[in-house]
Amino acid sequence: MAEKSKETKTVDSSRRGFLSKSAVGAGAALTGTMLGAINNSAKADGDPIPLGGGMPMTGWAAADGIEFKRAQEMACDEINALGGILGRPLKPVVEDTGNQGADNIIPAMQRLVDRHGVHAIINGYNTGAVTAEYDVIADAGIIYVHHNTDIVHHETVGNDPERHFGNFMGDPAEYWYGEGLLAFLNGLVDTAQWSPDNRKIAIVTGSQNYSMVIAEAIRDNAAKYNWDISLFETVVVPISEWGPTLTKIRNDPPAAIAVTHWVPQDLAQFMLQFVPNPTNSLVYMQYGPSLAAFREVGQDSTNGVLYSTVIASLQDEIGQAFNNRYKERFGPSSSPLVGAQVYDSIHYWALAAAIAGGTAGPGGFDQNRKVAERLRRMIYRGVMGTTHFFLPEQAAIPYPDATNDPSLGMPHQYLQIQDFTDEPEMIAPPPYETAKFAMPPWFK
């Protein structure tokens, strides 16, 4: 195995330097300076365009909400420095979605429309409304780009694309975590990086819909990828005592363990209780390992754990340039990996709006349909890789799960904790990987 490297090439981290590397267009790569060219050197001194965000500024997801708001401000400042949208500056506004759920999300979206007259709503994730907020957007005739990672989006928009012309999901659905994992495991085998003792996968899930969708996608597609399911266990969460589940795993050791519950402290307890008496199994966990709390609680028992994300800034030149600028602006403890989703989406919406001849507020159906059509045709290379949408569902296409072309899909990134005192290493997919897969230290 090649020795891992964290070196990155020198990059141009200026705004225009980054934008000149962005790729957008209808089946063609056009530079990000296109926005400046369309603006024809205009200054952003026209009537402001209110751009909304329904973000959890309080409640359990407030830490992420802060990053969404930071990214909103940063993207708007950069776009305004290029002349805004046809000379009109963006004015960011936020309404708090709190602890989320339909009772909090829908009123926040309605306030953005009624109180602020926003032309678009672009934010990170909100959970619990199950696309109910889409009706607010459809009734207003504006654009909505969210990152809810929810397969229900496909059904809602796909079944009525005319009504939901303005509703876009800027990341792939959670479903792809499931089938993508099976392809990833086969890739490790096919490239001789891993020789499993058998073809069994043990699945452990919480009862939340997010976790269940991923777990069921693994189970239902396992045979297609030549895997058997040795255990499908649903646990009551939160959970700190994993003894009964680990006993079942140890009684029938699988080649891989997939834990689709996501709370980092719970997952850290799993590893603390697994490692003293491990099986020769790869351990894949959902979301939790991406958070510092997982490594802080689990310490060296987390070394070797695998996880993935369908939405985060990359560790390539473009991604690192953004990460550096973001931390320079908001401090070393800020999280550009979280902010990236809002940042990219505001940039490609602004470009689509400029190409379409401008944007419109509530009731501006005709103009916003033009913006939506530009988004539907767009191929945008940003800090997270490529954004390109499934049609008619208007959800981001994942690479390599749904396309073999990295220029046409958002990379489903696989990472591994190889040293809990350092940042996780990105080990797939090519050409974005920055390190090699390492066999977990608990293997005998």
TrEMBL record:
Gene3D superfamilies: 3.40.50.2300. It comes from marine metagenome. The keyword Cytoplasm does not apply. It holds the Pfam family Peripla_BP_6. Keywords: Signal. Residues 48-392 form the Leucine-binding protein domain. This is Leucine-binding protein domain-containing protein. The lineage of its organism: unclassified sequences, metagenomes, ecological metagenomes.
